[in-house]
Structure formats: C-alpha cells, structure tokens
Amino acid sequence: MSAPVSLRPFLPADAPLLAALFRASIAELTGDDYDEEQQEAWSAAADDEAAFAERLASRLTLVAHRGGTPAGFIALKDNAHIDLLYVAPDAAGSGVGKALCDAVEALAKARGSRAVSVDASDTALGFFQRRGYVAHRRNMVPLADTWLGNTAMEKAFSEGAGQ
Hints:
By secondary structure, the protein is of the alpha+beta class. Helices cover about 35% and strands about 35% of the residues. The protein has one domain (about 5-155): Aminopeptidase, CATH 3.40.630. It is built from five helices and seven strands. Strands 1-2-3-4-5-7-6 form a seven-stranded mixed beta sheet. The longest helix is centred in the first third of the chain and has 15 residues, at about 15-30.
C-alpha cells in the first residue's frame, strides 16, 4: 500500500522541485501523445524558474506530498480554471491527481464558482472526462516552432453545491 497523499499550499521554496517535476512529467508521461519537439517546447515553460515560481504564486497552488516527497501540484486561476496539473511519473495513476482535483474543485465551489474549466492535454483528456468534464473545443497552441493540441473542457457544479 502506498503512503497517503497530503496537500499543502505552494511555498516559494517549492519552485525548483516543482519545475523539475513539471519537466519529468512531460518527458515521461506524454510521449504517446506528443513528439519530442513538442515535449521540449512545452517543458521550456519552466526554464525560467523565477517566472515559473511567479506563475505558481499568482494562483491558488496546492502541492501533493506522498511519503515526504512532492508527488504533484495543481494551480487554480481565478477560482475557476485549472491552469496546471502535473503528477510525478512514479505517482501517476496512484490517486495524486484525483486528490489535487478534488481539493481545488471543493475550493472553487466554496468560493462561489459555478464551474471549473481546464485546457486538457491529450494525455490528461481521459482523466478529466472520467471526472465529469465536458469537451467544448479543440485548441492548437503555438510554442516555440511547434504546435500543441489540447481540449477546452468544463465541469459544471450542481446548483447549491458548496454554498
């Protein structure tokens, strides 16, 4: 049995570890859906660790730990949009992503949001579909000299939920 997942708010000191987790997640988990050029362009978002840290700090960012080690993180923008959700490769499929999403969805509801949206990578599409997110449109995002596809999705909360 694996160690339980604990969640806590992002701290500025987390940035280097989360940047490394972000890069590892892209490199090791998205290869079936994106080619090497796309993965490198995507990973470059964490090359400037100060800017990456600022992005995390400007959102409601939660860090998941399992056995004292960062196992994933999620960043919620404006109480309504999952901007980032990444799980360490060795924690994929172990409930870390579920714990992170459960937490931000509950926080978004408690703060009055009627829905949460996400631009899901092709790798994460099934995960969000299983959570009740509905696809609205396909996006093609330019990064460096390549394009990355993702899907805009939304999960509406039932009336009165979390009120």
